[in-house]
Amino acid sequence: MLRDSQIIFIFPMVTSSMREPTFWALTVLASGPHHGYGLIREADRLSGGRVRLQPGTLYATLDRLGAEGLVELDREEIVDGRARRYYRLTDRGATALDAEAARLRASADAARTQLAARKGFGAATA
């Protein structure tokens, strides 16, 4: 007979949407290690200028992602007397990014399906 302390409950992992800085930091790191300023520039480029990460937000995000095991320090270099830290995506981070991309795609597909059902809308924009 099992006692309460021996019962294991397994619940499906509930995932909520990622914050935008998290999504873009992980997206940039999916291509390989980057340092902070490189992350900011690449997020701006990949988003077509829609996302401009601020250094304070980025470094707080990287600290949190490191604590969650989604990114890790790749290396550190000294450039012009200052430390430049490069971060890389972990396997866990890649899995989280993939799940978020799938969630966003499903949401966009649902919106497009609803818009296509709107009389005349789908034909005008297709």
Short description:
The protein is α+β, with helices and mostly antiparallel strands and 126 residues long. The chain has helices at 20-29, 36-46, 55-67, 91-117, 121-125, and strands spanning 34-35, 71-79, 82-89.
| CATH first level | Mainly Alpha
- CATH topology: the name is Arc Repressor Mutant, subunit A
**DSSP, total strands:** 3
Mean pLDDT, to the nearest integer, reads 86
Biggest sheet details: 3 strands, antiparallel
Radius of gyration: 20 Å
Kindly report the oligomeric state of this protein.
single chain
* Number of domain units: 1
Describe the global form. elongated
Strand content: 15-25%
Helix content: 40-55%
Q: Structural class of the secondary elements? A: alpha+beta
Question: How would you describe this structure to a colleague?
Answer:
The chain has helices spanning 20-29, 36-46, 55-67, 91-117, 121-125; strands spanning 34-35, 71-79, 82-89. It is α+β, with helices and mostly antiparallel strands. The longest helix is centred in the C-terminal third of the chain and has 27 residues, at 91-117. The radius of gyration is 20 Å and the shape is elongated.
